Fold these 3 entries.
Entry 1:
Amino acid sequence: MNIKGSTNIVGLIGHPVEHSFSPPMHNAAFQSLGMDYAYVAFDVNPNDLSSAIEGARSLNIKGFNVTIPHKIEVMQYLDELDEVAELIGAVNTIDFKNLKGYNTDGIGAIKAIEEVTKVKDRDVIVAGAGGASRAISFYLARFGASSITILNRNVERAQSLAGDVLASDLIGDVNADSISEIDNLLGDADILVDTTPLGMDPHIDDEPIATADNMHEDLVVFDAVYNPNETVLLKEAIKAGAKPVYGIKMLLYQGAESFRIWTGRDAPIDVMEKALNEYLGR
């Protein structure tokens, strides 16, 4: 990489950030397009978040991705929020041109799923009621899902999220139930989205939230976990003849959307995907 006096800096803020796959993905994209950009990860202590944003403005940094634990707290330091980011209540991308916050996690999941099937007019089950579930659920609603059923061990959390999505007026059919009901609900579902951490490395032998016995061949199964690539849930989906969607695709597409926000250019998806797989040793 040729760093010059004119090089534009974008990056990631979080705590910690050493594990991030974003630098190799974005730097490969910039290099392939011959763009004078570099992507750097910054470990920012929560106590220093305000000064980090102010410092980034002073240093003419062009954009940030935002990861745990800053996605909610950072919103108070921004001048503007994208409509869906405001609904979600969390930001994972900042554009310093207008100090505007976006959330590209949801669109990343939608684009991953839509490699296999359209979301519009589909009945979707979402497992989990945390931040990822919230981001994805609002985007499912925005992209025309027929119904969303949010399942969680803590049913009250699922009900709270379902109420928020319903109140957005983006969709008219949102339900909540216990994750223990998943086997009874999968038969009528078109898409299953798993936002729980079950099966994430090093816990690769966790019990999946659903097994092949309760899946059908027309079901699309998306797991937001991307390490390992083929989670216990996706192994069950393949066994059932259902269509798997890999979590790495969400990471890829959310990054591509951030790239577009910062640069105004379409990201080279194939280059970014190759860099991700190489970094993961695949």
Entry 2:
Amino acid sequence: MARALGVDPADLLDLSQTMNPLAPPVGPMLERHLDTLGHYPDPRAASAELAAALGVEPERLLLTNGGSEAIHLVAAELGGGVRSEPDFGLHPRSPDGPRWRSDPHSPSGHLAGTHERADVWDEAFYALATGRWTAGREDCRAVVGSLTKTFACPGLRLGYAVADPDLLARLRTRQPHWSVSSLALATLPDLLAAADLRGWADGIRSLRGELVDLLTAHGLQVDAADAPWVLVHRAGLREALAPHGVLVRDCASFGMPGVARVAVPGAEGLDRLERALDAPHP
């Protein structure tokens, strides 16, 4: 996209992918562990740390190469499909088998009610929506998650699956050797130590309110729920903002033409978005 617009990628405000706008920089943490690049990965210590944070037994947790690998492994083993459309595109789409549900729901952003049931839950954004690592569901087959969303480090590729030990053993046989890098494994404890889930969730809630106020002040219809993004009903919004270096997600892939998903930005991002909205549009 930067090449198409003729700008430096660093000059783009990418609100098409949803990351924690309040996460601390991950670079300094990585620098402390560069020596691990000379060693093969050993996930045991990092797995134990994450299991403790999630409140699950270590034998029920599998670290993965991002949330996408967790989804792939569970889908390959269990199959199934989404409980209802629209839902996240990487979830399987078979009419048979276990039912999948994202929480908060993608794309609506609503957290699941206590009465809602699914066989596989995707909690990629649960921590940012609630300030808690997990809903702690006991009546499902598996839970998948993405730490790269929580810590805004998609290049580090950290995700996980939680399941009973028998299912987890089968998932492990499907996973390539050394799936998660030594650098990611060594950095994970530092990420967990720096986590401020409650503060982040409260901060994102406040920023989401500011985002809604900004968008509605510009005459846009906005749907906001519990997630770190909002939906904007305005055909062509992506095309209008892109020339000003602001990227938003077109929801046509969800079967929602004329709707854009806008990630909640930090304070500087809100200012940048305001300038783009104020600029002349075709």
Entry 3:
Amino acid sequence: MSHTAHIPSHRKPRQRSASALALRAGVAGGVLSTIAVAGAAAPASADPVTETVEMPAFDVASSISHVVQQSAANSQQTALEQELRLAEDTAATKASETAKKTKAEAVRKAEAEKAEAKKRAAEQERASRAAERTSLSGATTTAGSSASASSSNSSSTAASGSVGKVIAFLKAQVGDAYVMGATGPNSWDCSSLVQAAFRQANIDLPRVSQDQSTAGRQVGTSNLKVGDILYWGAAGSAYHTGVYIGDGKYLDAANPRKGVVIQDLSGYPATGAVRVL
């Protein structure tokens, strides 16, 4: 026996509460009950595991190869589609450019042909004017010669000389502009030109075409002489006048587009004529 056994402990014994003791008893009972139930539920004898289940093999390399091939096929299909779209867009662009060039060339040719046609028309007009002026010169010379040859008839000589002055004045105005109401010297309307021309022969005609159409003796258009005043419309209400210059032609201030020109009477037959010389 230890020499310290007879010495009482100075430590006070711990007082355990009734609730703590009850809690511990409950926990212990629960654990023991669980062990008992588990043991009762377990089979009396268990056979050892003698076989294993074989898991299906998974060919990783084959799967990856399939995915790669599918991806490559998809990429190739996409590339082909893009190439096809690019080819279609390129073809459409070329077709549009070709159409534009064709249209531009057609327009250029049409404009060139139009310009050439205008040039030919202008040349023909100049040639026609030159021929008409030559004809007028011949007619004037003939009229002057006839007047000189008929010196025994003073009135006839005076008339022929007056006609020459009228025709010479009219020829000098060819190419002038037509302006309604104008009275010269570089622009005229139809009646002002006729009035100015006959003033060269000391004949004072009315200003407007209506009055000029009744200013002299009415003569038929089938028996015209150089210097006769032609009119279009009824006598007394004519809307246009000109002067007959021979060879089926007349000279007038036609319109704003033509101006003062020599024209063929067959293209625009007059309604009537008056003779003042």
